[in-house]
Task: inverse folding
């Protein structure tokens, strides 16, 4: 079903872009010159979402651990990330490497971006060199991990104690209980808030790369607007491109949500069953 | 088969089990009765390691269950447990609930587990509900699935923690029927229950528990008709009416 809709979307896209060029040369030019940059935002978002899912799982699990130390560490991290602006986090990560190099006396005080840890790690001159895009993705991962951890925690806490006892009573280990009882149910509860977080990552978080001058759709659009002097139109186009891909993302997650709904449980979606 | 020796349990300052000892022989059905808050459930949990006693020991077939970290998961699987609130895995079908332990804990191939699962569902009269999810089943049906799930691990004994207390009156019978049949087949059982008809007909031994201690132990007839303590007389008369 997803494959069919993807093919359909591509066909519609091709037909649409042809018609668009006839109707508005400006939109046509935007589509060719700026819009493809959305793939950068999409790629960053997907990388951050995937890595953040893994870290979020571990952090969320630590948060409900019986060990005080683990709980405190996870909580501290989450509060720190949630309590500070993502914009500052991006800037911090961005300037962390040059600052480190300077602090360690590995680079000139005036060394410009991208800084390297080459000397520190004893690598060749270009072997360890994080690009701007990589730094942005690191900041996004640090950020979304904290938010996804909270969503995991909510998911874990939604499982009744009784089911965990029942799993223990049939001899399942903690890991098996997590894998076969807690996770499958938690993930279903977590889908709507995860969708929220993923959309925010894609359309609100990735454009913040603007402040560190790493190219993506918003930067490309601003430049396009300045070049064509069609500022307002350009922003409308930009919004439309974000909207289309956001809808695709929510559509995919909603499909998963329906696909894995547990029969007989909860409120049925109106018009179904 | 099961031996409980001077078990104590504290929850914070609360001394919920104060030195309980008893023995369950193979094939016996031991029923624990008593007012709520007397520590019956906690005692059951101590037997299969869901709760660790603070003092005292529990033996299963001569081997110590308590205090040994090694193999405790394996030991738990040897004593099945049926809960008051069923506690079925809500994301799995009735069959999935029964076979989860078989495939994941015992490592049985799924085809074989399916066979065993269906046979056990047949035993509790729910073979036709194998593909239903817990939310699609009545309370009585859910509890029968839970019994099948406990039996799937081929336990040496099954513990029942007020298995009918959460059920509507008209659904209690079907669960008691399955339990009675199990008792007649010689399953070793420890049951917390106030279903007096059931207790009278299947109990080999009745323990009356109050304030974390066993006040009286004996046959159903002894405990119900000639109780030594006034508290028991009072309790029995309340429950029987």
Result:
């Amino acid at each position: 079903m997803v494959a069919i809709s993807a093919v359909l979307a591509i066909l519609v896209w091709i037909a649409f872009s042809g018609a668009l060029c006839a109707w508005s040369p400006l939109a046509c030019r935007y589509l060719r010159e700026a819009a493809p940059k959305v793939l950068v935002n999409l790629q960053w978002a997907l990388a951050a979402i995937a890595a953040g899912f893994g870290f979020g799982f571990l952090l969320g699990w630590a948060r409900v651990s019986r060990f005080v130390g683990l709980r405190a560490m996870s909580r501290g991290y989450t509060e720190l990330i949630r309590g500070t602006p993502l914009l500052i986090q991006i800037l911090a990560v961005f300037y962390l490497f040059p600052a480190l190099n300077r602090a360690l006396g590995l680079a000139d005080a005036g060394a410009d971006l991208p800084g390297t840890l080459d000397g520190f790690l004893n690598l060749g001159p270009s072997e360890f060199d994080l690009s701007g895009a990589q730094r942005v993705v690191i900041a996004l991962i640090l950020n979304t991990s904290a938010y996804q951890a909270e969503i995991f925690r909510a998911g874990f806490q939604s499982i009744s104690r009784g089911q965990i006892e029942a799993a223990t009573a049939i001899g399942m280990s903690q890991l098996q209980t997590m894998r076969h009882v807690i996770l499958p149910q938690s993930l279903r509860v977590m889908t709507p808030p995860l969708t929220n977080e993923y959309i925010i990552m894609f359309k609100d978080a990735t454009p913040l790369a603007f402040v560190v001058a790493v190219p993506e759709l918003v930067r490309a659009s601003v430049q396009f607007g300045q070049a064509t002097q069609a500022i307002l139109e350009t922003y409308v186009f930009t919004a439309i491109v974000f909207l289309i891909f956001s809808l695709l993302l929510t559509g995919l997650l909603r499909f998963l949500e329906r696909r894995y709904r547990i029969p007989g449980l909860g409120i049925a979606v109106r018009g179904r069953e | 088969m099961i031996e409980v020796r001077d078990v104590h349990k504290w929850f914070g300052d609360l001394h919920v089990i104060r030195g309980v000892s008893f023995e369950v022989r193979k094939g016996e059905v031991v029923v624990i009765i008593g007012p709520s808050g007397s520590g019956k459930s906690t005692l059951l949990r101590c037997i299969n390691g869901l709760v660790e006693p603070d003092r005292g020991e529990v033996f299963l077939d001569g081997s110590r269950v308590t205090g040994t970290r090694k193999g405790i998961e394996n030991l738990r699987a040897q004593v099945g447990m049926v809960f008051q609130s069923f506690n079925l895995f809500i994301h799995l079908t009735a069959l999935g609930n029964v076979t989860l332990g078989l495939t994941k804990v015992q490592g049985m191939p799924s085809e074989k587990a399916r066979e065993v699962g269906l046979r056990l569902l047949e035993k509790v009269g729910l073979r036709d509900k194998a593909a239903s999810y817990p939310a699609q089943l009545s309370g009585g049906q859910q509890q029968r699935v839970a019994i099948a799930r406990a039996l799937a691990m081929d336990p040496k004994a099954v513990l029942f923690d007020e298995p009918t207390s959460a059920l509507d009156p008209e659904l209690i019978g079907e669960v008691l029927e399955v339990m009675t049949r199990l008792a007649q087949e010689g399953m070793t059982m420890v049951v917390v229950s106030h279903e007096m008809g059931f207790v009278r007909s299947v109990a080999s031994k009745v323990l009356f528990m109050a304030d974390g201690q066993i006040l009286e132990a004996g046959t159903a007839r002894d405990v119900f008709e000639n109780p030594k303590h006034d508290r028991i007389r009072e309790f029995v008369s309340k429950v029987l009416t």
